[in-house]
Amino acid sequence: METPAAIRIDSVSKTYAGGKLALDDVSFDVPQGQIFGLLGPNGAGKSTLINILAGLVVKSAGKVRIWGFDIDEHPRNAKRSIGIVPQEILFDPFFTPKEALEIQAGLYGIPPEQRKTDELLAAMHLTDKADAYSRTLSGGMKRRLLVAKAMVHSPPILVLDEPTAGVDIELRRQLWAYVRELNAQGVTVVLTTHYLEEAEELCDRIAIINHGKVVANEPTRTLVAKAQEKAVVVTFDQDLGSVPSHSCFENIRLLDERTIEITYRKDKCNAGDVLAAVQREGFSIVDVRTRDPDLEDVFLSLVSEKAA
Ligand SMILES: Nc1ncnc2c1ncn2[C@@H]1O[C@H](COP(=O)(O)OP(=O)(O)OP(=O)(O)O)[C@@H](O)[C@H]1O
């Protein structure tokens, strides 16, 4: 059976007042229980999409369902089902972390005995700072407080917009450990990031957005497998009658009568195996070039393919 969607984005477009088309007919599902990465270059439309989920930007067209609730028909239920950690750090500097969480819980109408203030402060390693003014917190602590604020109403979905921008490695690790823990407890997580490695390490699935369009949406494993691919371009001394084949070839392309590009997976075989297989065809090789794409290349090629 198909996993129900935690978030369903259906033909969503957004044109800003000045005429900028920031999202162009975007559709995808975030499956329940996953850590879902939304990747894309600057200006791709990621924040626009997240702001639509947060109810901060009004879409121009399309439908959005959060935990099954249409954001136009059931905005309150939709809002209660999602916690959003914004990109920008904006706080009232005169509240303490404890007060900030209590106020936030109050906004969601959570009765005092059901609030999880102490638990959230502990999870975010902020217990020591519970009664300090927010303005005295470090950047990393402020960011952790934002995560805690997003979780006061125990939403089934947590969205983090560029959570590790400007954050040191130690804090990044802690943040990811907490994200993983929440996910293990059943929380669906969506995060936007510029760091492919980070998405690769954390996410079950990755969607790539560019110029307001979704250009890829695949399990991370599939995207990474593409990054595992290497290619050799081989030129022969005479025209090829037939293309060589071998079990370790992933794909083979004739570039011209004498040149072929063979793709193989570097975890399965090496360039030597590929060339030996080609030579068994009996032709002399006059030139060999290699290509070694990583996830960055896969990302760029997907982005440029669709833009072309
Ligand atoms: N309020 C606005 N009015 C007009 N144009 C906007 C507005 N907000 C964003 N845009 C434009 O919409 C496009 C998408 O912006 P958006 O902030 O969603 O991208 P992004 O993928 O989040 O980028 P980044 O990674 O830099 O945050 C950009 O061209 C941006 O300049």
TrEMBL record:
Q: Which SUPFAM superfamilies match?
A: P-loop containing nucleoside triphosphate hydrolases
Q: Which PROSITE patterns match?
A: ABC_TRANSPORTER_1 (PS00211), ABC_TRANSPORTER_2 (PS50893)
Q: Is Kinase among this UniProt entry's keywords?
A: no
Membrane-crossing residues?
Answer: none
Stored Pfam families? ABC_tran (PF00005)
Q: Which GO terms describe its molecular function?
A: ATP binding
tRNA-binding is among the record's keywords: no
Question: Which UniProt key words apply to this protein?
Answer: ATP-binding, Nucleotide-binding, Transport
The record places domain ABC transporter at: 7-236
The record's section on PANTHER family has: ABC TRANSPORTER ATP-BINDING PROTEIN (PTHR42711), ABC-TYPE MULTIDRUG TRANSPORT SYSTEM, ATPASE COMPONENT (PTHR42711:SF15)
The protein's name: ABC transporter ATP-binding protein
Organism the protein comes from: Sphingomonas sediminicola
